[in-house]
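Example 4.3 (complexes with small molecules)
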Amino acid sequence: MRIAVVGTGYVGLVSGACMAEFGHQVTCVDTNPDIVSRLSRGEPTIYEPGLDDLLQRNIKANRLSFTTELAGAVAEAQAVFIAVGTPSRRGDGHADLTYVFAAARDIALHARNGAVIITKSTVPVGTASRLRDLVAEVAPLKKLEVASNPEFLREGSAIQDFMHPDRVVVGTTSEEARQVLKEIYRPLHLRETPILFASCETAEVIKYAANAFLATKISFINEMADLCEKVGADVQDVAKGIGLDKRIGDKFLHPGPGYGGSCFPKDTLALLRTAEEAGVPLRLVSATVEVNTTRKQNMARRIIEACGGSVAGKTIAVLGLTFKPNTDDMRDSPALDIVPALQKAGAFIRAYDPVGMEHAAPLLPEIQFAEDPYSAMKDASAVVIITEWNEFRALDLTHVRRQLKEPVFVDLRNIYRSADMAAAGFRYVSIGRPQLPPVEVEAERTPASVHPLKSAAAE
Ligand code: NAD
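Answer. The structure with nicotinamide-adenine-dinucleotide bound is encoded below.
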């Protein structure tokens, strides 16, 4: 089938490439010429494991192409996906639908008669209906269907998630649209992936309900972590103990510095606005958002306490800046709260992230970037793990001790065992676990190398 995908960011690019892999003929459109020229050369514009190969294979097979020319791309397409951003609207937290409506208007003008326009962007309930009105106004002589197909992929495992989803959700009441979407997802249907057909309104609510529920699980376990710290319990064991119950499940029960990323923060806020307008306040979602916001703000205080109550004039090494591992996405990352708060308290930050430093540089202009984790720690008064990249899971603890001025290790992702860290001589602070007194260990110290990205302010 000929498919156009409008918006070639994290979702549009992965969806477009995966649908080409299914065997469809896909053209991805983006207004950003730099994105289009890089992708046309087979060069990924985002960091996502496995994307290089997928892109190159499908471009080579002539099933996947990229353009800035929307008119040509949609003219022949039977299905046109909208995958543009829906960021938080400044001031009220509602989803900003400016890009969605702009794209829909252009698509309606240029689409062929009988095409199906499908929202893959996360949009508030009622958007499909508004799009239907818009399309009828812009192209009154064409028969164009509007459907909703929310996306559930996770950055960092996006290709796997798109190719092997738990389910596909389709909102439509049109038989033609249903057949088109069935055909697009036929390879998944053959693998017995559940495909849930519902009304557009229901599909739109499913997406927000799913994200709000997952965010609630995270805020819940984070509050349990706070309780565990006060009463001498271990939240890791609590998470395991409840997660083994199949009614609860073990996913999204990892305590940490609070959720971030391009979806949960903005989607929970948008859902709250929608619910307010409908006169149905969602108290659980509201509490989830509040718990998360204060949690992110409190993380810096936890680090300052671990450093003896002050970080003024001290160097703090930060490992991991992206909102989670295996992505270069910095949107709403906890690092964006933690780092400025430490700087405000007088700390100098030296950071290392395996792929996120380029995106982090303009957002955190006052920090110095290091070439590797150990260089970041050189002469630092503490090391803080914000993102649980695999390469931070097996640090050489003797080398870490040698680099640090003081043996303070703050692990906001609980990737080390408290007993091992105490035995290695660290004052080890983690989340929701009892703190053990460090064992006395002698350590010699060594030099640092700095990354070319280091900011002028850091020189
Ligand atoms: P993104 O910001 O990475 O990408 C959006 C792209 O759309 C940009 O490249 C932009 O240049 C392009 N664009 C904007 N207007 C355009 C237009 N009129 N024509 C063509 N291109 C245009 O966004 P994203 O993270 O891919 O998210 C897209 C949507 O998918 C959002 O609604 C988001 O909530 C949802 N979503 C995201 C994820 C995720 O993990 N990122 C997961 C599920 C759903």
